[in-house]
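Hi W., the pyridoxal-5'-phosphate complex you wanted:
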Amino acid sequence: MSSPREDAPALLRRTAELAIDYLASLPERPVRVDHDAAAIRDALTGPLPEDGEDPLRVIEELVANAERGIVSMAGPRYFGFVIGGSLPAALAADWMTSAWDQNAGIYVGGPAASVVEEAVGAWLIELFGLPAASGFGITTGCQMANFACLAAARHAVLERAGWAVEERGLYGSPEIDVVVGEEAHATIFTALQYLGLGRERVIRVATDDQGRMRADALRAALPDGDRPLIVCLQAGNVNTGAFDPFEPTIDAVRERDSAWVHVDGAFGLWAAASPDLRPLLKGAERADSWATDGHKWLNVPYDAGFAFVADAAQHAAALAPASAAYIEYGESERDEFQWVPEYSRRARGFTAYAALRSLGRSGVREMVERCCAIARRMAERLAAADGVSVMNEVVLNQVLVRFDPPGGIDDGSFTREVTRRVQNDGTCWLSGTSWHGTTAMRVSVTNWSTTEADADRSVDAILRCAREAART
Ligand SMILES: *Cc1c(COP(=O)(O)O)cnc(C)c1O
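Structure:
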């Protein structure tokens, strides 16, 4: 009998091989979702075995049996939602992260993890053009980055009103007015839900036809008086890719003393990496906090989001965990859990570190610009076809498409049918949405490996599906 320790090298080498084979298959692997959950369940479930099985067999069977339930999401023709892939360097760093298995909550849980997070924070603050002394934390995603930033906001506006929310909670606290655009992302509302600020108890500000907050509407919507106020702006609308106009909106808010401005830039903040796109973010650096994702446009594996707060003290005041006698705190070193809503945590900095070093500043710029150019190329080719309209100004990486049935105007059902056919076809995958009452197909170009050839092949498949739908 060999021991798990003796078997581990062979197991891990074989697993690396399986992973490499999978990645090699990605460019040609069908891109679709198997909706036969019963079959997937059949292949993967069963009673908990009484006795342990050979680890190599467990992994080989897991890989074989999971096959039909794995979506080619990391591949070049996945255009659904807003989904990045994994840069090779980032994936490799992710493997090392698991092998090292550091507890990156505190410095003593892994000094390299702590220092690498510092490096990533400094690089991103510079790349995004944020205030140099900003606080910084790596979260599981932009949902928790929005949460972390809005926790800092809640702390700051209540502190100015003489209320210590971390100690006393919200019982009897001054009320906070929360202002969001009509097009705020769902995770802003979830963050408000988690923070006891209420998903519904918000003031909604009208947006324009691209989903940008209207600065005049914001000005009119700001409540009178000087109550605690949090305003949430957005860089990168999840449907159109549009940016709120930061200069006039932040000007309006800055007339108030006790206001906080947060920017949700899950993918839009990455526009800062490109001199051509950067004007879309003009003024955003004057906000108080910014949230973005790593697992979208930076193309690192899940989970990676980044929270930045201009006033680092406010950031730590809101997020730092309650103290515990058994923890060894860093002295001048960074304890990562001071900046995120977690305690024990994965060493999330390594993947972003490897991604950023392997790309360099020019590589990030090139990746972002290439995705946008591919989105424009797809939009142009689609819009040139009969019965196909592009519904948004393609300012970034998002395209909204409507399909009209032959000789008619779509009531939603035809675009839905085309989307369904594309999803089943397997050439590429994208999702549907509703934009200002109109059913649309969404194209999001966010993967590091997508080429013009992938774009053309996908447009060909989309147009073929539209022709087939028209014939039935
Ligand atoms: C994706 C997204 C989020 C949420 O990010 P997660 O990484 O899924 O938590 C928030 N805001 C916007 C604009 C997004 O596109």
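Residues 82, 141-143, 185, 187, 236, 238, 264, 266-267, 293, 305 surround pyridoxal-5'-phosphate (CB under 6 Å).

W.
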